[in-house]
Write a structure and sequence with these properties.
The protein is α/β, with parallel strands linked by helices. The protein has seven helices and ten strands. The chain has a seven-stranded parallel β-sheet with strand order 1-10-9-6-2-3-5, covered by helices on one side. Helix 7 links the parallel strand 9 and strand 10. Helix 1 crosses helix 2. The radius of gyration is 17 Å and the shape is globular. It binds 2-phosphoglycolic acid (PGA). 2-phosphoglycolic acid (PGA) binds next to loops.
């Protein structure tokens, strides 16, 4: 694991965005695994700035998002579909048919997950996977569990995750289920970038980097990937 510590979330955003911009310039039909939450927002702002400055196109880029809530309309203001369009896709020339999400409203969630995994494989796998980390060390919505998960699946969210994310829900209650990529699937990405800022993440970061590899600390599996860069601010790095 390579660990980089920055002073501000904005500096992290610039550094991570330049990795994505270089990838898209070098490999215009790359496959990106993307994340929602507060952590990637500065990165997405910087990617849009780079696009506006010219010399880069996202027309052939394919994206696959990590996760999506169940039982929330696709266009709800709190869906991850809406988040990604507002924070990133609407600012780029990316094609709608090239952005992919798990359908949290699919009647047969197992078939939906299998189809999503097959699509990612058919696209050649993920070149760069962006991750945040939960206060409980979840990645995607892989919550602490008795075993590491494989492909995409339907998950019951933990109280810790509901507590952390319910602040975004004022009209509809926060869903208690989601579809998420699985751990082995995340580990199959060629390169992984994880961003964490703020003191609430410090313990999860310490457990991820220094603790044993255990499904009770889902992000600890990243110790076994050979191309992971962790971007932290000083508060998130404070227990290392
Ligand atoms: P955050 O969420 O970026 O909003 O902190 C990260 C996560 O829960 O994975």
């Amino acid at each position: 694991m390579e660990i980089k510590v920055f002073k501000t979330a904005e500096e992290i955003g610039s550094a991570v965005a330049s990795i994505f911009v270089d990838e898209v310039k070098n490999n215009p039909s790359c496959v990106l695994g993307l994340a929602t939450g507060a952590s990637p927002i500065p990165t997405y702002k910087e990617i849009i700035k780079a696009f506006e400055n010219g010399g880069i196109t996202f027309k052939d880029v394919k994206t696959y998002n990590l996760d999506e809530y169940c039982d929330l309309p696709k266009n709800d203001k709190n869906s991850y579909y809406t988040f990604m369009h507002e924070q990133l896709f609407n600012g780029l020339d990316i094609l709608e048919e090239n952005v992919h999400f798990l359908d949290g409203n699919a009647e047969d969630s197992e078939a939906e997950c299998k189809g999503y995994d097959a699509e990612i494989n058919a696209a050649g796998g993920i070149d760069i996977q962006l991750l945040g980390i939960g206060n409980n060390a979840h990645i995607g919505f892989n919550e602490p569990a008795d075993s590491f998960t494989d492909g995409s699946f339907k998950v019951k969210l933990t109280d810790s995750t509901i507590e952390a994310n319910k602040i975004y829900f004022d009209e509809n209650p926060m869903p208690h289920y989601a579809l998420t990529m699985g751990i082995n699937q995340i580990m199959a990405a060629k390169k992984i970038i994880l961003i964490a800022t703020g003191p609430k993440k410090a313990e999860a970061i310490r457990n991820m980097v220094k603790g044993e590899v255990t499904p009770q600390v889902p992000a600890s599996i990243l110790q076994k990937h050979d191309d992971v860069i962790i971007f932290l601010d000083e508060a998130a790095a404070s227990l290392l």
